[in-house]
Amino acid sequence: MAECSGLQFVSPYAFEAMQKVDVVRLAALSDPELRLLLPCLVRMALCAPADQSQSWAQDKKLILRLLSGVEAVNSIVALLSVDFHALEQDASKEQQLRHKLGGGSGESILVSQLQHGLTLEFEHSDSPRRLRLVLSELLAIMNKVSESNGEFFLKSSELFESPVYLEEAADVLCILQAELPSLLPIVDVAEALLHVKNGAWFLCLLVANVPDSFNEVCRGLIKNGERQDEESVGGRRRTEALRHLCKMNPSQALRVRGMVVEECHLPGLGVALTLDHTKNESSDDGVSDLVCFVSGLLLGTNAKVRTWFGTFIRNGQQRKRDNISSVLWQMRRQLLLELMGILPTVRSTHIVEEADVDTEPNVSVYSGLKEEHVVKASALLRLYCALMGIAGLKPTDEEAEQLLQLMTSRPPATPAGVRFVSLSFCMLLAFSTLVSTPEQEQLMVMWLSWMIKEEAYFESISGVSASFGEMLLLVAMYFHSNQLSAIIDLVCSTLGMKIVIKPSSLSRMKTIFTQEIFTEQVVTAHAVRVPVTGSLSANITGFLPIHCIYQLLRSRSFTKHKLFVIITAHYQQQMWLFSLCETTTPLHPQLLPLIDVYINSILTPASKSNPEATNQPVTEQEILNVFQGLTGGENTRPAQRYSITTQLLVLYYVLSYEEALLANTKILAAMQRKPKSYSSALMDQIPIKYLIRQAQGLQQELGGLHSALLRLLATNYPHLCIVEDWICEEQITGTDSLLRRMLLTTIAKNHSPKQLQEAFSMLPGNHTQLMQILEHLTLLSAGELIPYAEVLTSNMNCLLNAGVPRRILQTVNKLWMVLNTVMPRRLWVMTVNALQPSVKIVRQQKYTQNDLMIDPLIVLRSKSPPLMDITLHMLNGYLLASKAYLNAHLKETAEQDIRPSQNNAMGPETPEVTREELKNALLAAQDSAAVQILLEICLPTEEEKAQSSSTYSLLKSVQSTTSPKSSDVEEEEDSLLCNLREVQCLICCLLHQMYIADPNIVKLVHFQGYPCELLALTVAGIPSMHICLDFIPELIAQPELEKQIFAIQLLSFLCIQYALPKSLSVARLAINVMGTLLTVLTQSKRYAFFMPTLPCLVSFCQAFPPLYEDIMSLLIQIGQVCASDVATQTRDFDPIITRLQQLKERPNEVSGLCKDSPYKSCSRDITSVDPDVQLCQCVESTIIEIINMSVSGV
Predict the structure, then answer these.
(1) Which of 67, 76, 119, 271 could form a disulfide with 158 if both were Cys (CB 3.0 to 4.6 A apart)?
(2) CA-CA distance, 367 to 364, in Å (whole number)?
(3) Which GO terms of the cellular component aspect does the record hold (predicted)?
(4) How do residues 729-783 score in pLDDT, each as one tens digit?
């Protein structure tokens, strides 16, 4: 807006004074500056203030005194005396009229027919008419803006163009907006002012008189602005207006710039504001705001912003390059000035003239880059890389010359200097077009030679492990093996941006590297000199030898070329020095990918033509050396040679290697390769759970290693990821345990395993000493308890003897659970061997970890009720381990799946059972056998029956819920505290977990069947037994009579426990099936079926009273069928049938029969041996129980 060049804008000083209402500052303003702020000051002085304080009263007097000498105040006072309500009504009518007749209508309600032009009318008019003239003109512009659909136009208006009346028109505009804010929203007014001459000046005055609206106006203008402002006249005018606003309020300029980025509009404004801010900055050696801003746009994570600004750069280059007024040109000029400001002494890259023949030709005078300029130089290099690689900037000859001088400068030996050299080198690779002349090429070669010579010096002096020597070596190897894509990835990774680099652009650099700088001999000699990074951690940034190793292993270049055989061995050794010896926390992020690619290099050949070109896995002895001191348990605190970080990394390697080996078994079998697998003996010696527990406390330092280990553990060792163990571990490592360990005394620490063994040997006669030692051991941590594990488990068998106090059993159980958090696998093997019967011990049969994974049921060969919790815990773990073992075995022998498919090409035959199906069948049989054994344990033994008959009746107590409570309640409560009851509760908990984990086990177990005496216990004690309702119809449909009886008995308990609509439908089905079987069964089968199932009908009636009619009809039908079978016998059945009909028709009259002791005993006295007679008597007894239950309201 060049038309505003001669006008006076509001100064930042004046705007700040208005914003803060600083009367002292306002009084210091000159008359021209004060004149621009009169509309607001006059309104401030005349309007009733909201602030009634004494200080404001004094300030108001100062304002009045300030205004008293200004002549223009009178005209503003006259403007404020107008009836604005009537004016607003007329304005609303005019808007409606224009909307009705169209925007081009010349009629106006605010202004009658004009005799002269707007300027003369404005001059001759009084205050009310001036307000109407300006309002009418402003509404016309605003109306046209709303109808323009975003197309910019420039409205010619005498009121806003005449320099004589600009100030008066501005006064009227400010008063109108202040008094009619609903009619004239300030954002809409600001948008309209962009379409008139001197609009930026009017806009600044308007905002200065309403300083609180600054951010609102700026955001509105930006939101309505163009995405590319320099492409149109409207965009440039909008940018210029906002730039004037920010000059008036420079403290908000950066906030406005943030709005520009947020809306992705007006990129030129963002750059212009940054340029204005940079000029006002104090010149220092730091990175300028312009570099930071543009770098943030192009290198940030927001792709939308990156594309938006890149379009601005590309479009700006398409216009004339000599357009000095262009914001892009100003930005490039400023960046070039900053670049030249930090360059060392000017160097000539041209051939010396003939007059200087005495000097060495083609040698430039080098001067090192100053240390305070290195960081800024690195930032500028990355910015130019982003501008050229992402935004498509094409550098001028001057820019290319200065960039090359900066890139080939020699920084000091500091960490920032190392970073600068790496960036310069990658920029040379990415933008080889910067080197266009032979002189520039020679300069680059000399600089690269200097890098090779000085990289060791830089590393030693700078004190950092990161160096550019590894990068040079890696790039040279890639050039020799023609892996240009790997070089491109390396360059993008180092620069920190994804840019497009054509492989053809690297051809010249390849020639220079392979023939002039890095010949094969130089590469080999340099590779051996690359040092190992000591104490490698995430704190060491930059390009390290580990990056070289990772890239080499990933690209597999060393296996394709004989040149790199020597380098391979050296780097492989370095790799394990990194992972085994020289690693500390926080973990370097490149270590896990390094191990992954190393494993891949072991399993996958580099090429099909050379399948033997693979690395070798680490030997078992090397792995055991890492864990030396942890595998044994003799010393409480063994001396560890390697750190916990190293041990965790080796554990990750072993688990990942085994998983990858199993995953690639079929591929390896097809290639007839079988890499070595680590033995189970090695895995048994690695304290996996202990290491995982240590890693849990170091999650922040280990990065993603802990989660990666948990994933591998859950896949390959599910028995070490039992949820109960994690919960128990939280309790052990919680606050309560920490407080208990504060009570740890010196006496407790001095108890040795030998003393614990002596206390166990005194157990039959002396319990006190053992109890005292065990209590002291509970105060120790899990790691400190490891030396006591063998003594504790070996003496568990003697705890099964009678007379051992329960307190000792509970304490041993607690100590076992603590040890289970650090050494579960070894602890389980020792416990299983210790709890074997004495006959086994005589034979000296010791089970191994492998034996127990193959046959988990070995755990249940000894029934030890006091320690059943431990037994069940081990059983659950070994069942999970067995599944993982069989899955791994199936993958290991995958080649057996390939051979049958090759042999069965003879023709279509019956499909064989797959090995996967056989494995699933074996697992199902194994789980069901474990369930059956556990259910069998729930039955009382003959000794337990003899000792306490009430204990055995406990199983029936749940079933007989309809019977009144007996008088001997205390005796029944005593039975609940027996060992059998505890064992039953523990087993039911485990079965519930197994059923939930695999519902198919429930179906399999119940199709197999188990003693009906346990139904009351399983239904009441296992919450997941409701699953049985899904398959009971299928079980009833089985042809075997025993399964049908078992299904109906099971259903009777389920109906009582789960009185659901589904249970009702299954019960109806069972009644219908019983009625059907009544008509088809023979006499012997009818007796065998109905005698055990008739009592179940009582439970059906109790759970679902609507079934009463159907059940009574079934019972009468059963009695009639039995009577018909013995009709030829001498005994008359008619009285019994008659009595049954009476019981059905008049239950209330005979409800007391069951209370009649003589009748009751008579009816249930089965004296006859005839099955039909016994069945009829059972039917009668069932009917009486149902009637009594319904009448008594149970």
Answers:
(1) 119
(2) 9
(3) integrator complex
(4) 666 665 655 565 566 555 555 778 888 888 888 877 788 888 888 888 888 888 8
Judging by beta carbons within 10 Å of its beta carbon (0-12, 13-18, 19+), is residue 876 exposed, middle or buried?
buried
SS (H, E, C) 472-494: HHHHHHHHHCCCHHHHHHHHHHH
d(CA 741, CA 749) in angstroms, rounded, equals 11
**What φ, ψ does residue 874 adopt, rounded to 5°?**
-65, -40
Of 928, 938, 921, residue with least CA distance to 1021: 938
Q: How far apart, in whole angstroms, are the C-alpha atoms of residue 724 and residue 320? A: 74
Does pTM top 0.85 for this prediction?
Answer: no
* Residue 784, Cβ density class (10 Å: 0-12 exposed, 13-18 middle, ≥19 buried): middle
Residues 6+ apart with CB under 8 A from 1192: none
Residues 107, 110, 114, CA angle at the centre, nearest 5°? 60
Residue closest to 657 by CA, chosen among 619, 704, 608: 619
DSSP H helices in 664-722: 665-670, 680-685, 688-696, 699-702, 705-716
- Whole-angstrom Cα distance, residue 1109 to residue 1118? 14
d(CA 182, CA 203): 18
Q: Using N-to-C axis directions, what is the helix angle for 267-280 and 253-263, rounded to 10°?
A: 160
Whether the CA torsion 15, 20, 21, 22 is positive or negative: it is negative
Q: Report d(CA 858, CA 890) in Å as an integer.
A: 22
The CA–CA distances, whole Å, from 529 to 469, 571, 591 equal 10, 11, 21
* Among 1101, 1187, 1183, 1102, CA closest to 1136: 1183
- Three-class SS of residue 292? helix
**Residue 27 burial (CB count, 10 A):** 13
Pick from 377, 358, 361: nearest CA to 369: 377
Q: What is the pLDDT of residues 284-299, one digit of tens each?
A: 667 889 999 999 999 9
Give residue 901's identity as a one-letter amino acid code: S
Whether the upstream peptide bond of residue 181 has omega within 30° of 0, thus cis, is: no
Phi and psi, residue 607, nearest 5°: -155, 155
